[in-house]
């Protein structure tokens, strides 16, 4: 699986460099949607947007199964479990020190797709509000 994942990643990078494959959004698009709090937009609605996409229709059936297994593993280990850990850490601090103020900073990856840090905190009963760029806290 590791060799397969490396090969697929290299093929994807070679396609990007050759111009035969393009990402459907730019870094500026990501920044704009993030700053506007538009975390449910199509850009931020892909669970695997942080990791290479190994699944494509041109793969033979046996390789497609491998790609799906790797994609599932990445989604579970690198996204869902990570966000669950981060959300629980925030919750634990808030519960342990209810009279203190906190400022938590996360990378945009913690807000993409499903099962985000925000989702974890909301499931725990916390109210989470977006503060637009430039607005005083």
From TrEMBL:
EC numbers for this chain: 3.4.-.-
What membrane topology does the annotation report for this chain? Single-pass type I membrane protein
**Out of the domains of life, which is the source?**
Eukaryota
Q: How is the cofactor bound?
A: Divalent metal cations. Mn(2+) or Co(2+).
Q: A single GO CC term, please?
A: plasma membrane
Q: Which Pfam families match?
A: TraB_PrgY_gumN
Any one of the GO BP annotations: proteolysis
Give the molecular function GO annotations. Answer: metal ion binding; metalloendopeptidase activity
Its keywords, alphabetically, are:
Cell membrane, Glycoprotein, Hydrolase, Membrane, Metal-binding, Metalloprotease, Protease, Signal, Transmembrane, Transmembrane helix, Wnt signaling pathway
Q: Which family does it belong to?
A: Belongs to the TIKI family.
What protein is this chain from? Metalloprotease TIKI
């Amino acid at each position: 699986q590791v060799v397969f994942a490396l090969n697929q990643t290299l093929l994807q990078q070679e396609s990007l460099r050759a111009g035969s494959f393009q990402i459907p959004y730019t870094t500026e698009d990501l920044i704009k949607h993030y700053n506007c709090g538009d975390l449910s937009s199509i850009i931020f609605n892909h669970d695997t947007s942080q990791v290479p996409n190994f699944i494509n229709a041109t793969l033979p059936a046996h390789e497609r199964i491998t790609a799906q297994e790797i994609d599932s593993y990445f989604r579970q280990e690198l996204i869902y479990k990570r966000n669950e850990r981060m959300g629980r850490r925030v919750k634990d601090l808030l519960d342990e020190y209810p009279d203190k103020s906190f400022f938590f900073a996360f990378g945009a990856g913690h807000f993409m797709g499903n099962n985000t840090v925000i989702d974890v905190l909301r499931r725990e009963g916390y109210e989470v509000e977006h503060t637009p760029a430039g607005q005083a806290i």
